[in-house]
Amino acid sequence: MANTHVNAIVVGAGAGGGVVAKELAVHGLSVVLFERGGWPDYDAHINDELISQRTQVLGSAFGPDHRKHPRVSIQQDGSKQVVTPISGDYGHIAACVGSGTVSYGAMAWRFMPEDFKLKSTYGKVEGSTLDDWPVSYEDLEPFYEKAEWEIGVSGDDSQNPFAPPRKKPQPMPPFEYNRAGRILAEAGSRLGLHPFPIPMLRNSVPYNGRPACIRNRTCVGFACPVDGKNGTHNTVIPTAMATGNCEVRTHCQVAEVMSDASGRVTGIKYFDGEDKGQIQTSDLVIVAASATETARLLLNSKSDLFPRGLGNNYDWVGRNLQGHAYTGAVGLYDFEITDFAGPGASFGMCDFNHHHDGIVGGGMLANEFNPLPYLFSGVRPPGAKPWGREHKDFQMKNIKRMAVLQGPIQEIPNFEARVTVDPSVKDHWGIPVVAMSGSRHPIDYEHCKWLSSKAEMVLKEAGAVQTWQRVGGRGLSGGQHQAGTARMGNDPQSSVCNRYGQVHGIDNLFVADGSLCVTNGGFNPVLTIMALGYWVSDYITRNWNASKFKS
Fold first, then answer.
1. Is 253 among the domain residues?
2. Alpha-carbon gap, residue 311 to 183, rounded angstroms
3. Confidence at 56, pLDDT banded by 50, 70, 90
4. pLDDT in tens, 229-286
5. What is the maximum span of the chain, computed from C-alpha positions, in angstroms?
6. SS3 at position 193
7. pTM here?
8. What are phi and psi of 281, to 5 degrees?
9. Residue 106: strand, helix, or coil
């Protein structure tokens, strides 16, 4: 039997898609939310670091299935490598309801006003596609606030002198510092810097019917055992379902967005949980599948009017792929600086985000999440042996004596860092897969060296007996915090979507994830993606009754 026609299809149940599904459903639209994975289940996965979302050595607790979802990595010499979620260069995104919001570190940063007008603030950067957003911080501020209160954020921006202006405080008090956070924050203060508690999408106190965080040390990369970490899977998506207007279809792989001879989209083709091909029609389609998978879906959705894919008449879909190069330094101490109190990261500093000579943007610094054994085994001073008795002795002696201070750098977008599809490599369902190519802009590495030197300075002030830098910023981006591949803009010839996430020239097709981001800030972008989900939804619901999008 054919699926019943609905008002809206949302592809992807992550940070953006979950918000959109909720907003449309509570405004009375009938919605089907498609997710390629299933519902997350903490009890189904022990706290095994080797299947966590940070390592994936032996698989992934929250997907995607490495047997069904290959990708292609195009190397700098032009050669191709087929990669999977348990190999390098994949650009992994979780596959479950909630997506990365199930297992993320949950830092809840607002971008700064400058992050929306980077080109106006710093000027042209040669070899880049740097541009201003078509929306401002002031436009998104009410939607940041809505995300903080509906999904739940702990923090206190009054302790951060660099925080952007806000009309309402975060709904929960901030987390306390753990031992490393306290020691490093005191060192930062002595240097004249401005440490403060990191804003977090997790409950510092009971909130919205769910308990407070229990300070579990296995946090980032894992689901929360008490449901105190806030994602779309346990906040907005249940609210959407409670309206009776939203159906969540799991284990569904969307293959194509369909369009008609007039250029309007009519629905999607997908494979259900039994690998059977299906069609779902709708008035609207909102794609929120991540910056890699959203680009893939648009590129695979071809027609006579869109021979290169939906929204791709000017070859901008998949371009400007950004992520975040994490950069910083490591300090080794002659005392135990780490107490393993969760969630791990507890203090941050925004002193290095903007307005430093020779730096375009910058980045925040924070202490790292708890060093679990496998990842810690790769953190060694220069020249240290990565095997044998010396390696094991270092592991046992120093796992509590080491601190990492690092952060994401504002990457500079460029046209050749991109997502394409490879027609010769297909997934389990026969759909051409993501191919990632290009590299970061050269200036990113220089920025990373600068920020790493600032991190090392703080670690030394905190009493480290040995320090060394870990400098990022080279190679292909998009490994984490993916963004930019369907950027918003006012000019259809240099962007994919307009300021409301509406694909240029297609009234009833929208994007609502990190793909929209023109630049990616010097922060974890998830709160901005949630705010964009509310922003896009607001435009749709305000215009819905005028029948602008209806078939």
1. yes
2. 50
3. confident
4. 999 999 999 999 999 999 999 999 999 999 999 999 999 999 999 999 999 999 999 9
5. 72
6. coil
7. 0.97
8. -95, 160
9. coil
Strand 246-249 relative to strand 31-34: parallel, antiparallel, unpaired? parallel
**Domain total in the chain:** 1
**pLDDT 10s digits, 478-526:** 888 999 999 999 999 999 999 999 999 999 999 999 999 999 999 999 9
Average pLDDT estimate for 116-120 = 98
* Type and span of the H or E element at 21: helix 15-26
pLDDT surpassing 60 at residue 551: no
Is residue 551 assigned to a domain?
A: no
Question: Is residue 85 within 8 Å of residue 64, measured between CB atoms?
Answer: yes
Q: Is the pLDDT of residue 139 over 90?
A: yes
What 3 state SS string does 81-94 have? EEECCCCCCCCCCC
Residues sharing a CB contact under 8 Å with residue 80, sequence separation 6 or more, in sequence order:
72, 73, 74, 422, 435
Instruction: Give residue 266's domain range.
Output: 6-544
- Give the tokens for residue 263: 């250029």
Are 57 and 86 contacting, i.e. CB atoms less than 8 angstroms apart? yes
Q: What is the H or E stretch that residue 437 is in? A: strand 432-437
188 SS3 class: helix
Tokens representing 455 are: 């991190």
- Beta-carbon contacts of residue 428 (< 8 Å; ≥ 6 apart): 65, 67, 68, 69, 253, 275
* Structure confidence by residue, pLDDT tens digits, 312-328: 999 999 999 999 989 99
Token pair in block for residue 467? 């320090």
The structure tokens listed for 256 are 């194509």
CATH number at residue 478: 3.50.50.60
Both structure tokens of 430? 């026969």
Is 549 inside any structural domain? Answer: no
- Tell me if 550 is assigned to some domain: no
Distance CA(383)–CA(278), nearest Å, equals: 56
